[in-house]
Specification:
This protein is α+β, with helices and mostly antiparallel strands and 659 residues long. The chain has 20 helices and 34 strands. The chain has four domains: 9-90, Ubiquitin-like (UB roll), CATH 3.10.20; 91-267, Threonyl-tRNA Synthetase, Chain A, domain 2; 293-553, BirA Bifunctional Protein, domain 2 (2-Layer Sandwich); 564-654, 3-Layer(aba) Sandwich (Rossmann fold), CATH 3.40.50. 33% of the residues lie in helices and 26% in strands. A hairpin with a 5-residue loop joins strand 27 and strand 28. The two termini are 57 Å apart.
Length: 659
């Protein structure tokens, strides 16, 4: 059991007792702009109580500027605040789930003494905690853990924050045989921290920055979801821990609704759909390297073809660069320094080579291969580049996280005065292309300088401002610190039919790579200047895009990319010649059609066609042979009944409603 020692400096006071002085006053600014006068030293809870008793009862935390804090923390004069309640969007879920993770850890500690704890953060749709146990946790243990969580929640035990110095915190966790907490404390010390904060509820104390709800009774309704393996700090060199995923919602109704959506999502899991429909599979001979089956290649090729048609109309030129290039190139580009742990290396004729993890350096070499003039710009080079990145086995996940994938990359080399029009053109293309697959809800985010970045701050400021100007009057969000190491970018997300957001495209400005590769063009004044590079991807990767598409549609793909668009079913063997003729006619008109002449019953073959999600099933028997027609069953739309063979392909194409 964890208890802070006397060395810990407890942060007080508790909610409702934070008034430090009656004589001295301060104020905070509310979301509507009004001032709220408070005694100096007032807490977030005091502010909520001053507004009204109902708000004080509902309060979970307080947002101060861009930071969410505990209610018990003191406020400063002039700060802008917003009380976080169950109606505060994602803020209240973040705080509630963060606290629920601690309660889950306490429950595991109670049931499995000697457990060592790793990280336990809130994540999208829930939270997780990493444990090292003497005996593994399985889903069979979930009911007992959930019962213990509920017992702790009913105790309404307060979360109490304290502060320790780095040496004291290290000693505290060493005494309790918590090596992963010791590792975290040491890492914080190396980062320059002098003190760390700890949170205690009941008999459990954890290293944590917070924030947390006031007490365990406010963690909502908790449900454990799954268990998986995870390497400590994501490195295969470290021990494998047990990661327990869970979620929490304020009400039982919200939790039940989420679990229903989760069950529906499992039925649409692209790994299951891809296997059932014969799209792709994985083999133990190549973990993380997908095998695309014939039907899968049809879909991938159709996606590529649609993109190529768009790019041809926009003046893009397609290139192909080598899969393997010298080590020196990757050192020049900066990728070796930042990505070497995720790259595959080899040696050829005593020279070091690396399999490319990105396509950018190859495109730079193509630009540099000949003298360029301002008249050549913008030069739009597109590439369906196959790249390889080493991912830890524990994070591999179907087509969403693989070790080899195809990026629909493009690199636009342009002048500064061309950035705005080029980026806007790319954003228009992105929205237009997504709409072809039914993705109409598109969100854009400007990702700014990360902690580890190359180039000067001035260069980054210039790049970020250029993207802001290019976005113009489009609505967009800000992702602070989420840019690539060599430049800011616009991240593009879509929302699927189940309300889930997916990161897809990127549009990234790069002033850095042209300097690394010495790229120049001749200006109208016959001087040399550096171009700007716009890195652009629409799907992100074809593999991941296909995975998202399979989950969005449940495998019921749009007609134009369906691997099998029509299936002809002869009633008996004597109808087989006519079925072959119908199939040949459709194929001759450019449709993808097959004949199911198996000896199964017609009903069984129809059912199999429906399970295969074939858009059209065409049944042919005596009547159809005699009248030169086909009896059509459409998966979507009203195109059912007997249709003449003449013009049948055009009729089928026209009969599919737009998705």
């Amino acid at each position: 059991m964890f208890h802070p020692s006397a060395r810990a400096r407890k942060r007080g006071p508790a909610p409702g007792t934070g008034v430090a002085s009656i004589a001295r006053r301060m104020h905070v600014v509310l979301p509507d702009g009004n001032r709220l006068d408070l005694p100096e030293g007032a807490t977030g809870y005091d502010a909520a109580a001053a507004i009204g008793p109902g708000l004080a009862k509902a309060a979970l935390a307080v947002r101060v500027g861009d930071e969410i804090r505990d209610l018990a923390g003191p406020l400063a004069n002039g700060e802008q605040i917003a009380i976080v309640t169950g109606k505060s969007g994602d803020d209240h879920l973040y705080v509630m789930r963060h606290s629920a993770a601690h309660v889950m850890a306490e429950a595991v500690m109670s049931l499995f003494p000697g457990t060592r704890f790793g990280f336990g953060p809130p994540i999208a749709d829930g939270f997780y905690y990493d444990f090292e146990l003497d005996a593994p946790i399985t889903e069979d243990d979930f009911p007992a853990i959930e019962a213990e969580i509920n017992r702790i929640a009913k105790s309404k035990s307060p979360f109490e924050r304290s502060v320790m110095s780095i040496p004291d915190a290290k000693a505290f966790f060493e005494e309790r045989a918590q090596p992963y907490k010791v590792d975290q404390v040491e890492e914080l010390g190396r980062q320059g921290e002098a003190d760390v904060s700890l949170y205690r509820e009941r008999d459990f104390t954890d290293l944590c920055r917070g924030p947390h709800v006031h007490d365990t009774g406010k963690i909502g309704h908790v449900k454990l979801l799954s268990v998986a393996g995870a390497y400590w700090r994501g490195s295969e060199k470290n021990p494998m821990l047990t990661r327990v995923y869970a979620t929490a919602f304020p009400t039982k109704a919200e939790l039940d609704e989420y679990l229903e959506r989760l069950e529906a999502a499992r039925a649409r899991d692209h790994r299951r759909v891809g296997r059932d429909l014969g799209i792709f599979y994985f083999d133990e001979a190549g973990p993380g390297f997908p095998f695309f089956l014939p039907k899968g290649m049809v879909v991938v090729n159709e996606i590529q073809s649609a993109l190529r048609t768009e790019l041809d109309g926009m003046g893009y030129q397609e290139i192909r660069t080598p899969t393997m290039l010298s080590d020196e190139l990757w050192k020049q580009s900066g990728h070796y320094e930042h990505y070497k742990d995720n790259m595959y290396f080899t040696e050829v004729d005593e020279q070091g080579f690396a399999v490319k993890p990105m396509n950018c350096p190859g495109a730079c070499l193509v630009f540099r291969s000949t003298r360029r003039s301002y008249r050549d710009l913008p030069l739009r080079l597109a590439e369906f580049g196959h790249v390889h990145r080493h991912e830890l086995s524990g994070v591999l996940h179907g087509l969403f996280r693989v070790r080899a994938f195809t990026q629909d990359d493009a690199h636009v080399f342009c002048r500064m005065d061309q950035i705005q029009s080029e980026v806007r053109s790319i954003l228009d293309l992105t929205e237009r292309f997504y709409a072809r697959f039914g993705f109409e809800d598109v969100s854009m985010f400007l990702s700014t300088r990360p902690e580890k970045a190359t180039g000067t701050p001035e260069m980054w400021d210039q790049a970020e401002e250029a993207l802001r100007q290019a976005l113009g009057d489009r609505e967009y969000g800000i992702k602070e610190g989420d840019g690539a190491f060599y430049g800011p970018k616009i991240d593009i997300q879509v929302t699927d039919t189940m309300g889930r957001s997916w990161q897809l495209g990127t549009c990234q400005l790069d002033f850095y790579m042209p300097e690394r590769f010495g790229l120049t063009y001749t200006t109208a004044d016959d001087t040399e200047e550096r171009p700007v590079i716009i890195h652009r991807a629409i799907t992100g990767s074809l593999e991941r895009f296909l995975g998202i598409l399979l989950e969005d549609t449940g495998g019921d793909l749009p007609f134009w990319i369906a691997p099998e668009q029509a299936r002809v079913i002869p009633v008996s063997d004597r109808h087989a010649p006519y079925a072959d003729e119908v199939c040949a006619t459709l194929r001759g008109s450019g449709l993808r059609a097959d004949v199911d002449g198996r000896g199964e019953s017609v009903g069984k073959r129809i059912r199999d066609g429906e399970l295969a999600k074939v858009p059209y099933l065409l049944i042919v028997g005596d009547r159809e042979v005699e009248t030169r027609t086909a009896s059509v069953r459409a998966r979507h739309g009203d195109l059912d009944g007997d249709l003449p063979l003449i013009g049948l392909a055009d009729t089928l194409r026209a009969g599919v409603p737009a998705r």
